[in-house]
Amino acid sequence: MKDVNVLMVGVGGHGVILASDGMAEIGMNNGYDVKKSDSLGMAQRGGSVVSHVRWGKHVFSPMVKKGEGDFLLGFEQLEAARWASHLKPDGVAIVADIVVIPISAIDGKIPYPSWDEIRGIFAQYTNQIYLIPATRISHEVGNPRAVNMVLLGFLSAFLDLKPEAWTDTIRRRLPPKFMESSLKAFIKGADEAKTMMPAKGIRE
Amino acid sequence: MKQLLSGNEAIALGAYHAGVAVATAYPGTPSTEILQNIARMDGVYAEWSTNEKVALEVGMGAAYGGARALVSMKHVGLNVAADPFFAASTTGIIGGLVVVSCDDPGEHSSQGEQDNRHFAKLAKVPVLEPTDSQEAYDLMDWAFSISEEFDTPVLLRSTTRISHCKTVVDVNKERKADLRQPGFTRSPAKYVMVPSNARVRRHSMEERIVKLRTYVEDFPLNEMLLADRKLGVVSSGIAYQYAREVFKDASFLKLVTTYPIPANLIRRFAQEVERVVVIEELDPFLEEEIRCLGISVTGKEFIPIIGELNLEIVEQGAIQTGILPAAAKPSPQPESPAPQLVPRRPQLCAGCPHVATEFVLRKIGFRTPSSTKELKKGELIVTSDIGCYTLGVYPPLSALDTCACMGASIGQALGLEKAGVPNKVVAVLGDSTFMHSGITGLIDVVYNQGNTTVIILDNGTTAMTGHQGHPGTGISARETETQAVELELLVRGIGVKDVNVVDAFDLDAIESTIRRSLETDGPSVVIARGPCPLYVKPKGTPFEVDTEECTGCYECLDVGCPAISISEDMAQIDASMCEGCGVCAQVCPQEAILESKR
Description:
CATH class of chain A: Alpha Beta
CATH architecture of the largest domain in chain B: 3-Layer(aba) Sandwich
CATH architecture of chain A: 3-Layer(aba) Sandwich
Largest interface: A-B, 55 and 55 residues
Distance between the termini of chain B: 52 Å
Structural class of chain A: alpha/beta
Number of strands of chain B: 24
Radius of gyration of chain A: 16 Å
Radius of gyration of chain B: 27 Å
CATH class of the largest domain in chain B: Alpha Beta
Largest sheet of chain B: 7 strands, mixed
Distance between the termini of chain A: 30 Å
Oligomer: heterodimer
Number of domains of chain B: 4
Strand order of the largest sheet of chain B: 3-2-4-5-7-6-12
Order of helices and strands of chain A: EHEEEHEHHEHHHH
Largest sheet of chain A: 6 strands, mixed
Shape of chain B: globular
Helix content of chain A: 40-55%
Strand order of the largest sheet of chain A: 2-3-1-4-5-6
Helix content of chain B: 25-40%
CATH superfamily of the largest domain in chain B: Thiamin diphosphate (ThDP)-binding fold, Pyr/PP domains
Number of helices of chain A: 8
Structural class of chain B: alpha/beta
Number of strands of chain A: 6
Number of domains of chain A: 1
Shape of chain A: globular
């Protein structure tokens, strides 16, 4: 069993915590020791959110060490860039095409970075960078809130567990109302990974 | 059964299985979820108390009556509850009394950082510290047992990372069935702390600590792990997890009983290893206790005293002092310096009822968003308090001058006035904070003939910690209806004659009312009332910018609403975020912001 260190970052309201809870539970249900740690800015909507999820034989620290992240799931581009240095050299950045401009970028001196700039930041640490059309996919499945499922689906393609290991937990955790669209989003995310993965190098 | 539980969930479940009968708390990050979880469990009385002092007094009373009682709070809450904490230590209890203090190293969501293990030592109370959720769950039964066996409150110290991390817990117990029948046995010598009785109890406290010193020597959750004898690490709490990962080969002594410490166990450990280091978060508490045993020990020489630890900090410290060799493969460094990324500061939400009042305060206080330090004549001083509205200190609102501790705004305002500061002073605090500890401040203003204007931002909930009930809401911890304490009646009852209630979204009404209250001779209270948009649904009709009328003056941006941004040299409102509060429309000089017709 290989250790898995994942960071999930974004802003409040995008389902980061739900996704990391699910990810942690999937690890536990599949025989891993698991720890996960959430940091939320002061409780308000739209603040930055960071979740660390670790699977391993025996996990000590609930937080991933800088430079040792296997995966970074970015639910928002700027927040993803902020945590790029937590990836290890061959780590995988999976970033949703979602931009939430903070108020300090609207009237401040530092502008919101372009995707090229963000890609440049990631390129300093890894060449595995995927920009996921999560907005399109979540709309296709009829659930704009299913971005987290798209990203989890994409991540699942990199890990050894069977698809049911993921979908069983999703079924258990989600209310019936969002079940079908969430599962669709998960599968489409996994399919997207299979299309994007074969060619090595920077992918968009 | 294996479950993934946060530290707070584990504390709640552990207490439940240990037979807790009464649980009290005042919400405070990172402790809030303890009572929230207990309130969902059958057979336990759970309450949000008015403040932490009351919470602990209720817990003390319950324990006097033979019940197991759990009182939870954040670290600064124990400052508020310090008086009953010391009192409970003096009298002792009958049923178990466990006080949970959740410290916040790194001040994720706090006005200060403090290591509450000092409180335990000061009050002669034992302290237990879990290193993960499993231990938090297991420790609760021990905590109650120790409390009852030694006739003392027990402090269980958690930290943000313990409370908010989820780890795997083997839930292997069920709720105790043989709970003590409640009943009070009269014993003035124990419970009535007149000096003659207190002097006797004082001896009991010292005798108790001596007995506890022996007891902790064999405490089963303290753990000695002997591996490479060159380095012996003594550690507790979350720091233990970082240390285990950083010092892979070292010998370890994990301490769960961090006051009093097991002296003989530590001496034995020190004899087994060549060098002893202590890895602990915040103060050198264990380090100093161990040094007092005459053992040569280091720790804070290379582990910071300030802030939260993590793997990098512990590893770097160890490398710098030569305990660990420099990393063979240094963590990847970027070839060029990373570009500065724009920060995402916490801010008030779209539709927040505090925005309009803070906007008005800045306006009539004559400040600009980049206000200078020197106050001009006529500028307003705004003393503030603990709550969401404190975020109004950030631009563009920049409306506040102070924020210290719960309820302080009112006393500070009176103090500034009585000192003879020429500017007018307004105190601003929330409804929950006013109930917590603003009331006594306001009584002081009335009694001492202050002219203070107090603005109570009444959003009908304790918003910052996630919408808990408080005495003004009429909603209990179990979310049932209960008697609400009415703010207007309360402040009038205290003796404030000038009391006004305004709509928290009506800029003109807020401004004229505050201006009038500032001119009042004597104390005045303005209640700005409007619901928290995250708590009350549904939202109103969103607003939109009339692109024909917008001149791009961006005065609407001064509201600081996250739904408003700039697009093509004009203001733009994100309809999906807009709550329809209409404050921006009232600010727009062009009347270019209108309710959406779509």
